[in-house]
Amino acid sequence: MPEEYTPPASPTASFYDLSEDDEEYSTITHTSTGRGVKLLYTKSKVYVHPTPSAKDNIPGFIALMQQKPPTSVAADPSDPVNPSNLLLAWLPESAIGTAYDTYVKVDLLDTGTPPKQTYLVPPPPISSGSSPLGSYSFSIPVSQIYSLLVRPPSLGWWWGSIVINSRGGDSFPALFFHDSECASTIAQSKARTKKNFDPFGESGELFWGGDEVLRWLKRFVKVERSQVEKTVYLIDPSKDDLLSFGQRPVIDSTAGKNRDAAAANASGSGDFAAAVMDPFTKVIKSARWSLLEQFAKVTQFSRQTATNMLDNPNLPPQVRKLLKNPDVVSLQDDFDSARLYLARWAMGIAEQSERERAKIVWKREDMMEMEDSAVGEFEILDIEAGNIRGDGDRRRVVDLKEWNSWWNKSTGRLEITADEVKERIFHGGCEPAVRKEAWLFLLEVYPWDSTKDERAALMNSRRDEYVRLKGKWWDDVSRREGEGEAGEYWRDQKNRIEKDVHRTDRNIPIFAGEDTPHPDPDSQYSTIGTNVHLEQMKDMLLTYNEYNTTLGYVQGMSDLLAPIYAVFQDDAVAFWAFVGFMERMERNFLRDQSGMRAQLVTLDQLVQLMDPVLWKHLEKAESTNFFFFFRMILVWYKREFEWDDVLRLWEGLWTNYLSGQFHLFVALAVLERHRAVIMDHLQHFDEVLKYINELSGTIELNSTLIRAEALFYKFQRTIEASDRRHGFPSPGTARPMVRLTHRRTDSSTATTSSTTATANKGKAVDKGDGPEITDQLREMLSRDYVRVEKKPEDEEGKGKTPARE
Amino acid sequence: MSSRKKVLLKVIILGDSGVGKTSLMNQYVNKKFSASYKATIGADFLTKEVLVDDRLVTMQIWDTAGQERFQSLGVAFYRGADCCVLVYDVNNQKSFETLDSWRDEFLIQASPRDADSFPFVVIGNKIDVGDNKRLVPQKRAMAFCQSKGNLPYFETSAKEAINVEQAFEVIARHALAQEEAEEYTGDFGSSTIVDIGADSGDDGCAC
């Protein structure tokens, strides 16, 4: 049984009598009331920010206090302190009165050792928590704390903060740690640096006041950091949580006062109970695609029905409550960063609650409801326990043994189909050892039907060709001396390349070193030094200019080359793999940006088709330029994921297994993941951009890929359904399309016409008109990627110096 | 439509790639310098609250990709700017020479109501590198600023936090003045819906 909500222990009978001195150490008394609590730890200069204006900030103390256990409980000094006797409190400086000196003293104690003295202070007011922003000062028994939302100081948010959420569903006002004013934090930070030469806290981030609070709590209770949402720390999470969800703590549904208990029980008796109760990831891994797709659809559906997050019954009550608080609402309106902060924070909660929702999502009623809903367009697939199988195998990483088993031992010819290989890599990715070979096929250096000998011969000639291409600039002394227009252009290119190579993936070991003296004394980096791999990168990029004479080096290309080079660590091989990659990426770098525009427009249409409600919102927020996906599309999420994830993502995309433009489904998956937050909190282009930019480093790759795949299938079926309805194919009909823009057409007119077209789209689905499918959308069903058409007049930039590039 | 009562000052930082735009912004907002910033792709911004003559304002500082090729997308975030900061590297001649075209590009894309009075501030960055490497003499830079209508000019080091605070104080002041001036004349520019394809005409082809 989940842990029941228990009311807080009555504090009235449990204060230490200040005159009572039954401790083995001396007791400092301070107040006239004669009753008090032990002040165990406290930290000064912790503020409540009741309004956006800094002058309204209220300084105070956060404190951990111990009240006397109720007398009925036999006091055993060896017993650990019962968390219900501990109070976490915040008191404004102004309310502390004569105890101020005691607070200051305790603040400055060395928290590394147990206190030698007991400091008694007047009991804090016990707050019901019903008006958290009204009376500000509060205290809560630690046993009643459900979770802490901990946000360390970070870029753009210069005070760390903690929000306390109670088991009863209340949230207390955010406490901001003004570390630069807090004597104890400054001292602790200094001591830390001195002792360990490590200014960082336990989390590896910069030490700040909030770390101390977590440390206090960890002495008495179990503090579990959520694996999923790193800002959430659960206090004494229930056993059920840990049992049901393995090592992944989640929001306990009991936090919502058992509102879901009945539902959970109901679904628990269903056929798919086992899957439901399993960790989310396990469901995902073992489920059939049809099931996953269904899941994505249902999730989508339940989101759409919630008009906004505030009314979403699946949202933990503490969040709903906080967001509804008028003070918070006005804070959101006035203060952009506060809104972003809240948005991100709410997302953290939503992330957790989604797991919770997974329990009830599978109810039969939901399924029935869906059939009647807008998504009734799609056939509802049977979901049976028996269907959940088999997928785990597909998502297994391709290791060298498996890879080798596909090739004939003597001829080196592929013995299964290329599609089968692609399917495996698309779903499972490659083990590092496999990449050196597999990538050459994926990047079209080797044909799939080649033999070992053919490949060896091919590579020999490619090596020769690389040397020849490199020689074109290497041996061209006059160009390298910067003579004439060609020389000036070359030097400019070299400078650009050098500048970027020196700031590309320097955290990756092979690119980190600077111990080789720079070969060119005139270089801007001559004083810093370089390493052989950086030099190879520069040479390859310069050589690419000899191969593709029209493009020129553009920022982002070094980002694309680095992983390829790092995998092969052989310049000629890496070069040709890069050439293969650039075949599809070239359009991202065109001078007129037409390729980027085309993709952003396609993404725009994709969102219109797949999620018109979200699209409407983005339109209102003037964000349908989708510029906030620019970086992700330009360098294929290189800046959003960690290195290893980038390799895994790219090799999957290179397979074209489902679509030559699967990266746009990844974008859609990212967007859908954050849909609720965007809809509820982000109303302007700048907010959307900031939010999406800051997703960098937080996106979980595997679930994103699964979501993207599910979205692709849904997309495919939307189009099929539309075609069936319209008796497609009907080529050349005058039927108006959502956007009949071709890649290079001026889309300003298209935007206006599409606005009207899509305004009706949601209804159109119901009325049976069906969505209109543009050429660009249809193109996404193709497994070919989009290449830049080579036109003879595409001569710009060739060998000459463009005015500004 | 906007319920933002607070004064938001939008500042755009422009200049060639590698002159230190990201570093300047981070030094000013976060008081941090890192040698390992990556080339900026797309655009991003940081906000900072500052007091300008006892008025609390929020500066929204936009950092953009330095490669010209990407500027055609700039219209998406130039709109509504209150001040534009033009940055060059004092050790890089070319980055200085392109200042003028950065300014022109900005005026075209942001199309402020009164281009002549729109505030620009010029920053010569990387003065920490050392005099022997310096390629743009201060005199020359000042002459340029004078010729463009007495643009305020600062020489900074984002790395060593020299003059950064001072420069941004002036930037904030100019931006606030601009914002207040705009209030009288209403929103500037047309109410063009930002569209990624709307400006596909002749953007990059200034090249």
From TrEMBL, chain A:
One of its GO terms (cellular component) is late endosome. The keyword Iron-sulfur does not apply. Residues 747-759 have a biased composition (Low complexity). GO terms for biological process: regulation of vacuole fusion, non-autophagic; vesicle-mediated transport. InterPro entries: Rab-GAP-TBC_dom, Rab-GAP_TBC_sf. SUPFAM superfamilies: Ypt/Rab-GAP domain of gyp1p. Residues 724-805 are annotated as: Disordered. Residues 763-805 have a biased composition (Basic and acidic residues). The keyword Protein transport does not apply. PANTHER family: SMALL G PROTEIN SIGNALING MODULATOR 2-RELATED, TBC1 DOMAIN FAMILY MEMBER GTPASE-ACTIVATING PROTEIN. This is GTPase-activating protein GYP7. It comes from Dactylellina haptotyla (strain CBS 200.50).
TrEMBL record, chain B:
The keyword Signal does not apply. GO terms for biological process: regulation of vacuole fusion, non-autophagic. Keywords: GTP-binding, Lipoprotein, Methylation, Nucleotide-binding, Prenylation. The keyword Cell membrane does not apply. Pfam families: Ras. This is Ras-related protein Rab7. Gene3D superfamilies: P-loop containing nucleotide triphosphate hydrolases (3.40.50.300). GO terms for molecular function: GTP binding; GTPase activity. The lineage of its organism: Eukaryota, Fungi, Dikarya, Ascomycota, Pezizomycotina. GO terms for cellular component: fungal-type vacuole membrane; late endosome. Signal peptide: none annotated. Belongs to the small GTPase superfamily. Rab family. CDD domains: Rab7.
